[in-house]
């Protein structure tokens, strides 16, 4: 990520870095039109604290989020930052807390309601091998039937069962949950999923899509690593988007 401004002395260096990166991600989502009023969440673990997480203030638009306004919460969604005046949408954090608690590698979790991803979640058959980006995910996505708003903890066992060893869960008739070992990794997975869904919708609107065979999908997935840039999954792409955000507004760094 681009050079940081002076660290807020309230936070450790590790937490401030995480705060700035997450605030930048919220601004990227707003810039890309992936926001949904004041709803939806991107959460990350605080790197140097066990059981602490950062989440957006409930009531604040993604385009308003800054590093210092992000709320630190515990695994149950309770505020640790008592001096932060904003509220936490506990209902929205139920599924995030489940995956953060049960999956050690779920450092960052993204849940949104974009038109394209929700549409594919609402389509029989879900994401299909109809385009380049969709091939990234064949056999790597779990699906969970709609049970209403995700506020009941008893749904958690079924969410985990349907996720299995995957790290993307399409909530049918609802929207995707995308997880990553880092925030840039979760971002690039989300970006490619969004593109896959957009292209599938466009293709299906024109007629019967051409389905890509399983053998070709396997070759595609095998060779994806050859197109990656050194620095970790999604890092170069994320940093490029941060530079675009900075041309609009740098207040996310505060």
UniProtKB/TrEMBL annotation:
* Annotated Class II aldolase/adducin N-terminal domain residues: 20-201
Superkingdom, taxonomy of origin: Bacteria
Q: Which GO terms describe its cellular component?
A: cytoskeleton
Signal peptide from the UniProt entry: none
Please list every transmembrane segment annotated in the UniProt record, as residue ranges. Answer: none
What SMART domains has UniProt attached to this entry?
Aldolase_II
UniProt-listed InterPro entries: Aldolase-II_Adducin_sf, Aldolase_II/adducin_N, Aldolase_II/adducin_N_sf
Q: Name one GO molecular function term.
A: actin filament binding
Family, according to the entry, reads as follows:
Belongs to the aldolase class II family.
Q: Quote the protein name from its UniProt record.
A: Ribulose-5-phosphate 4-epimerase/Fuculose-1-phosphate aldolase
Query: What is the species listed in this Swiss-Prot or TrEMBL entry?
Result: Sphingopyxis indica
């Amino acid at each position: 990520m681009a050079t940081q401004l002076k660290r807020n002395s309230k936070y450790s260096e590790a937490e401030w870095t995480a705060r700035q990166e997450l605030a930048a991600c919220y601004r990227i989502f707003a810039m890309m039109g992936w926001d949904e009023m004041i709803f939806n969440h991107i959460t990350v673990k605080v790197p140097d604290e066990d059981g602490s997480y950062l989440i957006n203030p409930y009531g604040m638009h993604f385009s308003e989020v800054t590093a210092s306004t992000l709320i630190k919460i515990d695994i149950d969604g309770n505020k640790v930052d008592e001096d932060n005046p904003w509220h936490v949408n506990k209902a929205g954090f139920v599924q995030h807390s489940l995956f953060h608690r049960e999956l050690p590698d779920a450092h960052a979790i993204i849940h949104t309601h974009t038109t394209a991803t929700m549409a594919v979640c609402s389509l029989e058959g879900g994401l299909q091998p109809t385009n380049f980006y969709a091939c990234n995910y064949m056999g790597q996505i779990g699906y969970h039937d709609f049970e209403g708003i995700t506020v009941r903890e008893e749904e958690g066992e079924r969410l985990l069962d349907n996720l299995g060893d995957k790290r993307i869960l399409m909530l049918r008739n609802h929207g995707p949950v995308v997880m990553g070992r880092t925030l840039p990794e979760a971002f690039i997975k989300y970006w490619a999923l969004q593109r896959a869904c957009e292209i599938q919708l466009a293709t299906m609107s024109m007629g019967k899509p051409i389905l890509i065979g399983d053998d070709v999908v396997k070759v595609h997935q095998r060779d994806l690593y050859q197109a990656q840039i050194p620095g970790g999954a999604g890092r170069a792409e994320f940093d490029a988007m941060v530079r675009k955000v900075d041309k609009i507004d740098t207040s996310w760094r505060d």
